[in-house]
Amino acid sequence: MIKLSQLEQDILHCKYGSRHEFYRLELLDMYGIKKDDLYLVSGDVSLDCVADIQKSATINFKESSKVNYLSDRIKPFMGVMVGDTIKWWPLGVFLMVQTNSSNGVVRAQCYDETIILQQSQVLAQKVFLKGTNYGEVLRYFIISCGITKINIQSTEHALQEDLIVDDSKNKLEWFNYIAEQINYTKLSVNSDGWFISKKYIEPSPSNVGYIYKEDHMSVLSGNIESLIDYWKVPNVFKRFVSHPTLGELVSIYINADPTSDFSVTKRKMEITDSKQVDNVVNQIELDNLTRKAAFNANQIYEEVTFYTLNMPHHESYDILDLRSEHLNGIFIEQHFNIKLESGSLMTHRVKRLVTLN
To answer: Which domain range does residue 267 map to?
Structure first.
């Protein structure tokens, strides 16, 4: 999340009256250096933290002979009048993956620069030795693509065994696969073009980055929608592993608790969660993992959609405190969409853990 000054926050929340919004578009070369300003016609920018490439945009701009569609980037900005000047916030750096032109206007379907890693593979096997710091491994996949704007949170974790990377995955898949092992977020690119990954944290009051509340300075607009998928909550859990010395190990736990609304006893049906696991030393440990899965099934995500005026300071995994008449809680941002148009509404989709009774 881009940090706001108190004045900037007041302006965005219309403390001094209606705010005046502006939108513009810069053309950058492959190194991120500005080449020119482009005439922005319209567009929108979206974030989806579930997707491998988290930021995307559809941008319409007037044709320019200065654009190299194979290597140039475009960078949209949102501005708001603060006093006698305009405060500008970047909304992302994008590659133009698909373009078409009509009547002098280019329509570009764009994705953030993690697409560079997605399209690249390790052509010859590379071995990271046991004891190598995880941060070094993660940075390798970015640096090997010629990227220098890297902000990976430092870690003390090191590989517990040798790691061989090859062309079975692209570099983005390798990065996210390894990041998950130390509970780091998937690779994302922030609004200014920095490649980011950090330790994933669940939403809590101690790490709230921004508050949206219904008061005299509220930017909330429209209905707040909530969705909890109770139907798929499992009540039968199976874990299995092919052990090198003990052979096939299987553990099954059935929720037959008559006081639980989600149990086999109450629902009269089985909703099965079956998974293979790795590196379990014995049957007791496998049973413990199965019971842990059953416990975790009592915590599911509530997904909430709400709308605000365009707020340009948000990034992946922002933690928000939502305070409204009908819904309150701490949430993590999973999706947003900003239309590059003055007075339009921004869509937020956030989630939080809910414990089932």
So the answer is: 236-296
